[in-house]
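## tool: complex_structure
## caller: assistant
## args:
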Amino acid sequence: MRDGTGFSESTADTRVEKTPLSHLSVELGHFYAPDLELDEHFFIEHFRRIGVWFAAARSAAENANLRAPRISTCVLIDDYFGLPEPPVALIPKLVAAARKAGLEIDYLVRESGCANNVAGVARNPAEPETGPPGLSLAELVEARLVEDPPPNTTAARPPVSHTGWLCNGQRSPATETHEAMKRPTAWRPPAENAAVNHSIFADIELWREEADGRLWSCAMLAAVWQLLRLGLLRDNGRSVAVPHPPPPDLPDNWSALPMVLRINDRAAPFNAYRAMTVCAPLFLPIENAVRTILQQVAVDPAVLGQVSDRAKGEGISLPLEVVDRIEYLFVDTGPVRGADPG
Amino acid sequence: MLVFAASDKGGTGRSVTSCNVVYRSALSGSDVCYLDFDFGSPTAGSIFQINDVTRGVRRGGMHSYLLEPDIQTTGEPHRIDVWTQSSRASLRQRPPGSGKLMLFPGDQDGGEFGPDKEALRRCVHLLQALDEEFDMCLIDLSAGRSYATQLVLEATADPALRGVAARWLVFHRWTRQHIPAAAGLVYGKDGILDVGVRAGHDKDELQAAIKFVRTAVVDPDSIELSGLRPAQVAWLRDCDEDLGQLAAKHQVGRRAMLGEVPLDPVLQWREQLISDNDVVARDIANNATVDAFDDLARKLAADEEWASL
Amino acid sequence: MLILGEVLTAALRHSGGMPRDRVEDALGLLAGERVRTFERPISYAVSPKTYTGVDCRIVARSGAKVRGVGTLMGRACLTGGRVLQSSAVTRIEPVAGGFRQPWSHYLARLGMVEALGRPDLPGTADAHLLADRSSSMMGMGALCVRLLTGIQGSPVLDRKPPVRARRTVLRWAATIKDGAEDVKWHFAVREDGLRTVRLELGPAQIDDIVNLCEDLALHDWLLTALMSIIEQSQIGVEQPAQSVVKLRPAVDHLLHLWMPAARLDGFALSVWEGLESRPGLSRQWDASVRRVRDQMAMAAALVNNRPPERKQLFG
Ligand SMILES: Nc1ncnc2c1ncn2[C@@H]1O[C@H](COP(=O)(O)OP(=O)(O)OP(=O)(O)O)[C@@H](O)[C@H]1O
Ligand SMILES: [Mg+2]
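## result:
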């Protein structure tokens, strides 16, 4: 039944929760285990170099006619592929280094939170859980992938997503045939679907099945991370990875912490209309992979509509396409090493 | 119910017998269909006497349904209603109370193929959809250790088909060569049981779902042979007894058998359906042959015939 | 504006009723999205919407072709715990220029296919509606089959369909005209279990049109299934006791599901009102139901004279 008539059933609900939104979220660093071992000087230097561009981002926001822009900052800690030193040591080190470089870290986020299901967010026990519990954010995003179809694709083409790979075009076909006594097909090059004259074909590994379960790729987790920052993820209509203040005593163990820690209690909201990432050019291939993935994620239209209505209400123009809400500055941030090989 | 028709050797009478069994089931009121999974040489169209489809259809047959999903915009394979499409007049009069009789033809230029994951998935979907509609789906497989056989063994092990009865008929002629060959197809290395177990079937359950059918059997005592000299009949009887022992030794004996079809003069000459008209009005086919088909159709559907030991 | 859709209808492969959480498992096509369920006036559950990308020819009746790029919406619903349906829907939007945009462009406009060039929209509607069952515009049929078959294979089902029937296909095309005041519609029953609906109406929500077409497909399927059960029961040829055995699945599983326009309002109601006067679906349904009940009553009366058989028939 419709709204406005006299009868409704709660199990028929389609509402989605709102999350508070900043104008801009600026990522001040995405740190992998090899870099996290380094001493304070490395981080001070890192934040000092980034600070220049952070200031530029702030004045750009002010130039866009925002009287008091709400800007929040965040850093992402890789506790998924590597094992950084315990929170009790690392968090104060990072926060202090940023301060010394004139920056404030508002939110500190654990990357493994994108891959493992987010526990510890107390839900209202009066409202029954709907849907299968225990999904990770990465699974939520994976479910929303709608593959970019090559030319001459009808809906009859079976989804090829069970492979763990996602591309932006057509792969080079396999050259051996399955059929007995049929001639093998000749080699053909891969092709990008939206190619301009020539193809730039990208084939992205999303995950791999390992002996102890699925291992998500760095690109996939980074795509999840960007969507999370943009406030576009929901689990059965509920917000996910809501920020929490750190516990009074920091634990030794990363998994004991909520996924998103609000380090600065006067911070603007974690989620934002737009997201900016300032990082070393080393990360360009990963971010290209992230964009390839995000171009194929169909965000819930209800959530998109909610966000764009609010933007309109604030007089902000927002690109319709999610991938265009993400901006990058590839700058020299000092001698980063990035992720371990493999 | 799914019924898979297999044989080790070609030319055993697998297709002709299967078509006739399906036809008898339809006459008795069941909704039935026949799937031509003999990818190398799909010929069911000619047995049902569907013009233009005697060697399979040009497009949209079983083969392209499984292998070329992209062009099948409906997600459904081509089907032919035998009651309306057969060129044989006596078939076109669908008797009241009879069930559907549908042919899913093969493709003209299909070939044997190594099924990939997608073909397997589509095979599962197909069998699932047809099980929604038909009381019995008979799948005619290529002879021998074929990809088709492997494909359906894997498909029926899929959780989506759990709970759907699947029965196997292994056809063989009543000869010294055919008996061990049929046994080999079922019990031998890389045979149906081997491959089935590898695909995830329970061995005993699968074995209980496999029965043998003897085709073109000569009965030494039949009236057709009454013209034979006593010495010849005696010799035939000896052979028959020998074969009986051979069959028992190879686990193809009476207990593993669902039925036998006598040698029929009409089938000897032509691959076709035997209508009641052929037996009664035209008196060219034998009553015993039709009885044998009826008997097979009945036993196929009778759960007690298939209870595991 | 032109909206095209296709609905596939089948009996759920499950012998009895199912609790709500099982239904939600079966219809949960998209992780993290809710299955919506209703209990009144008839139980009804609908899956979240899913999307599939296409880049293919859109053919008009004249044979003219344009390239269409975008997404089809797919969803599934279950009515009365018995009848399962899947739908494919998209809006055809003509755009100038012949270039395909980056894929994110289309994902920002879900459920829409942009026709590059100058499409012949009325001719496209015709091509969609007049094709026979062996071909389906943009692969909509294949999408419906994939959604429905996926659900039918769900482990929460016992794979025992209450009735054996062929899936029916209903194809529809809705033309929305801003000025239009009343609804024009045409419902056609074609061979091969194919039905078509042509709609012409003023501004309307696509979801409401989908709901209407699914409701039409549902009731057409019920009627088709009931008629075929009655035919196979050979009333008047077989003994009543025999006929009744064959009629029983209809009584157990179908008769209570007839509830036209149960969750519809607005223009959809007026389409149903029209359908009730001609061809008069409910009249045909009521007459068939009466026939079934008469057979049951007669069989019961006969059995009452011969008590031993009673148990076997109604036990
Ligand atoms: N009961 C029978 N009596 C006499 N001839 C028979 C009998 N059954 C089948 N035949 C004949 O045997 C020949 C082979 O039959 P059929 O084509 O059915 O075999 P098949 O096992 O399907 O062969 P293939 O492997 O080539 O598909 C045909 O000519 C057929 O008419
Ligand atoms: Mg054959």
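## assistant note: The mean pLDDT of chain B is 92. Residues B 14-15, 38, 43 surround magnesium ion (ligand 2) (CB under 6 Å). Handing back to user.
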